[in-house]
Predict the structure.
Amino acid sequence: MKVVVADDVMLVRSGLSRLLQDAGIDTAGEAADAEALLRLVALEHPDVAIVDIRMPPTHTDEGLVAARTIREQHPATAVVVLSQFVEPAYAQRLLADQPGGLGYLLKERVSDIAVLVDALRRVCDDECVIDPTIVSRLMQSRSKSSTLGMLTEREREVLALMAEGRSNAGIATALFVSERTVEAICAQVFRKLGLEASRDDNRRVLAVLSLLRGSQHDGGQAR
Amino acid sequence: MTDAVSRPRPVGVRWATLVVVLLVAAGSAAVLAGESGMDSSGAAAPPSSRPLVLIAPTVLVAALAVVTTVRQDRVASAAGLAVACLASCAPLWASTRWVTPPWAGWFVCCQPFVVPALAAVPAGWSGASVRSRIRGATWLFSLGAVVALLLAYDPFRDVACLFPCLSAGAPFASRISASTVVAVVALLVAAASALAARETVKARRTAPVPVVGATATALAIIGAAAGLVTVSRTDSGARAALQSAPAVASLLVGLAVIASGWRADRVRTRLARLVSAVEDPARPLAATGRTDLDLQFALPGGRGWVDVDGRPVPADPPGSLVALDDDRGPAVRLVASRPGHLLDAVTHLGPWERTALVSAREAATTRAHRASVIESQRRIVELTDRERRRIEGDLHDGAQQRLVSVKLHLRLAAGADPEAASALGRAEADVQAALTALRELVHGQVPRLLETEGVTTALRDLEQSAPVRVVLEGLQEDPGAESAVAIYALVSAAIRRVPPDAGDVAVRISRDDAFVTTVVAPGADVTAWPELTAVADRFGALGGSLSVHWDGSSATITGRLP
């Protein structure tokens, strides 16, 4: 897997590169700002770009803008955005249209190499990854649509883990149940969210999308 | 004392005036009826009934005008009006049977005094201190004309004279021809009229426009009539008409004085209404019904001028007039779109109006002070917000980045040295705890989302991440950045105060003349709630207000923003 890292702090950039190297992932390049990142992506065609949301010159949402640009211009390159903000709205802004191949992690997650590497793999598989902290804030809210309100406690847990980018095996481990049970619950979730059975790959993304969109839409209208 | 400060009753005065006018009119009608009865039976009938038809309204109007000017303390104008009335009516009166020679002859002679007397009417507005040489010359010319008439004019010998019954016995009448005397008198009267007209036009800066205009017209009529007398000596009909010209002129000026006095009264009534509306600081100003008349007040200590709301106004606006001074200079001034009648209203303020203006000034000063306090409160809140954002930015860019980097390198070190891994793991957990604490710290009252995405998105985000169910309605319009922060702070404070499972929080934002945010927070404890005090400060700083109502089960918090 070929990865590029964009962060304006050199120590973070180099530390992250070394950590990824230790985990067996090559860093194809580093960038200190959005412009350098876009040049690097155009040059190297990496599988994933890890992008800090705050970058020069305004230190606000340059990373978000760059992430969108990359997804539009280089669809083969997945993006994981690292954010300081827990507000779900930023994740929604990035992911609401087409969440496949995008990840939104809190910045401090980067040292949790297992989570990071898992997230990188997931986005490479065109799935969507949302930070557990943000997912739990989304799930906390009770003002969801009736569609999400129909889910049982267990189904909501599974959906949350799905949004965090975990595989069925990962979910099974986290909930101490068998993988078959997880598959059954997933099927229930998809059915309740009105997602058809034929396109299994996309259904996980669509389920997360309906979680993100909350009360405004339901999963059946996604895409 | 109570009498002095009691409110003036201009309406009552107006009614009384109307009654007097009607009575006098009825009386003169009766006299006219008697006169015409005598006409048919009398042996030597007067040429026409014109004398009384003109005398009655002229005297009536002059009397009312004198009353008007006396009420305004314009003694010069009052005297001028009285003399003009007498001088213009006396020759007409002389032609009736009630006046006998030699009085009738002298009555005829005093007519030229009309000119300087009328000129004194507008001059009364400029004050007694103005003594001009031209006015003196006007009196001199008129006096000359009167003397010439007295000495050399015998109406009995003048074939064109209207008054054949008269015998004045003028000493030089036999030596100078009547036409010469008439010509000399006409010349003097015309010259006096010209000088007086010039003086009148000069008075236009101080006197009301209708009075100046009427006087100038009146003088033009008299001057023209004097000129025409010489040309049409033998035509008795024309002479009769010209003889009446001074009376018509006095009538005109009298009417103008009454009209302008009435308008000045109206300005004073409006001023009184305005003052009573302004002097109470608690009274809503929207109810006063602004007119083209406005009051402005000097702030004590020379800190500029403010309007009735306490808002600063330009130092020297056009059409303004100082109404009240204190020991340090102008204190209150009137501003009008048409300042013509301000002077009359202002120069005759009663004690009640002065007292009211002083308290109105105090009320306006209080409003100005309050506005400046709100403004400084707003600046403090703004400064606090800016400082908080700066600290937040510094923490994100500095401490948070460093901690992330430390965590990263601790992990790297742990990978390189398995023996120290557990100690490094504990350090990493501490760093994570510090990061979490830092995030809680910077996620303050003003979330970044509010700035970048606006209040609707920020509230929706709050709604979605709240641990309780929030029902959000309203808010179509953008209330502006500062109001948005206040509304957000109110909603977020209320949501945080509601215990889990207490019920739904209802948030309703509506717009009438103000942005009204109503939050119904079930189970929210309203006692000892410092966060709500901070929110109330925010609302206060924007000139709004916050009220809390507790009905035993839920708190209803209503915030209003202008």
User: Anything to note?
Assistant: The CA atoms of residues 499 and 523 of chain B lie 7 Å apart. Confidence is low (pLDDT under 50) at residues 1-11, 34-48, 163-168, 284-289 of chain B. The first strand of chain B starts at residue 293 and ends at 298.
